[in-house]
Specification:
single chain; alpha+beta; 11-stranded mixed sheet; 7-stranded antiparallel sheet; 16 helices; 23 strands; 33% helix; globular
Length: 658
Amino acid sequence: MKRKLFPVFTLTILLALTGCKEKKVEVTLPAKSIQGPGYKLTPVNIQNVKLTDEFWLPIIKRVQEKTIAYAIEKCEEEGRFDNFLIAGGKMDGPVKGVMPFDDSDVYKVIEGASNSLISAPNKPLEKLLDSLIDIVKIGQESDGYLTTWRTINPTKPPAKWVEVKEGKRWESLFMSHELYNAGHMYEAAVVHFKATGKRNFLDIALKNAELMVATFGDGEGKIPAVPGHQIIETGLIKLYEVTGKEAYLDLAKYFLDNRGNPENHKLFGPYSQDHQPVVNQEEVVGHAVRAVYMYAAMTDIAALKNDTAYHRAIDNLWKNMVEKKMYLTGGIGAKHDGEAFGENYELPNLTAYNETCASIGDVYWNHRMFNLTGDVKYFDVIERTLYNGLISGLSLSGTEFFYPNALESDGKYEFNQGAATRKSWFDCSCCPTNVVRFLPAMPGLIYSKNKDDIYVNLYASNVATIDLPNNSIDITQKTNYPWNGNVHINVIATKGEDFNLKMRIPGWANNEVLPGGLYDYVNVIPNKVEVFIDGQKEVVNSLDGYVTLPGKRINGKNIELKFPMEVRMVETSSKVAENRGKIALEYGPLVYAVEEIDNKNNFDDITVPLENNFQVQMEQNLLGGVNTIKDGKFKAIPYYAWSNRGVGKMKVWIPKGE
């Protein structure tokens, strides 16, 4: 019989109330979060952005209304919560599950639900999170240690690839995920604190972080080491930003500084980006998720410490990734073996990996790079990834998932952890819970600001209030993007007009697929972006990739942007062997794919003539309502929506025709 969720949580609350005496960590929180001196821009919090968009709002609501509850149910079924109770002595039995990082799924669900609370307050959900946090607290050891599998039985880890010799803490950091679990806990605890103002989860995280500070480093009695799987670094930095405690920032930098240092520890090698010091790395290698989490932390250090060596390294790494190792969908990670980047220009389609987690991590990294520099190119990558290789990881039902995201399917190759379509769950469930973690926070990407400027990064209908040091700006954005290129923006400033509005021109509208030339458009759009203020056409000055308008010109007026939308044909650099002689299709920010279900009689014979009269049509009753592309010979749908109608063939790259 299937266990019911809420009775377990009620029991947990009672257990928490009856015992568990503990040493409380006293950390005084500053009045304001710390902003790094090197960060040029600040994101506008999702609390100040109310999404009304017909594209993104249904996706986020799907996560809020279905996927969060579904993920909690799956975590319960597979013993994720029981492990905390067993570790705390409230239940008997061996560790449940098969992965040493199962704890992190609980943390990611809490983070996603907390992000949901910020934009959509929900008292029952908040109470449910308190119950989950009570469960987590039970599993924490008295000195702050928290990795349940090791507490339950340190000699029997839940995965064969964790080497255990003496059953000691930290002895197998390459694969134990003790520090990875902690990193996700810190990130979730900070979001929960910001969402609710409660310290119940934050204090658990701080107690664990104090243990980390006391344990790792070069001082007497400390362990010189780095994590096998990065993310504790960004988690520690988030704790630093909330608490102001320098020791957390210093430990994050210590972990980064000592990667590739054989005098510190036995190196884990390229798989973990531990083959050379991070400031010397110029090529993205190894496990793609580990990599982008590390690069995000390096960007934080570049900003918080004004570290030019770190800044130079992340510039080199980003350039290598975007110019030589990124898929058209924004996905990264070419190889199933090691969930890893391939060689330069190694971009297979049928066997592409493109882990959903890697797309999410890449958005986190690019968002930091943008806030560090204000360079429009980073949002070109973010937009491409969001609309294509990231949301493809979640089904239209909200309860099936892609772990890898292939660009081709023969309907037989079971690329998705034993399936040729999306699955309802995985033994390694990092991707479903990462989707839960990420998507409710998506509105926080739309706007950024500095003391004088507001940046419109993404186009989605919303109502926002953006506070500047000496002003408050109300923005209303209305659009049917990505289905068409018209955007209406109204701006009302309450305290004067001394500000600028900077509206991003997407790279695709400037005839650039991605920076660096890995991909090119075959058909160049001759007409440019048009801007109107109260119906009057403006001269567009966009040398930096933005349409910049002064507050005195736009306050109280209606701005209209018109981006040129037509079907685009894309080709790849000839250095990518698999795509030679092939074309991909795009419309606005969306990459398209042909599926067998729409082209049953001729799928294997489809070609794309370079001279073509494409027809774009909105089909409201198809896949939740999508623009389709037809040319008389075939029909294409947005890539993100493929495989929602059963198993079948699919391809993004189509042979050129005559």
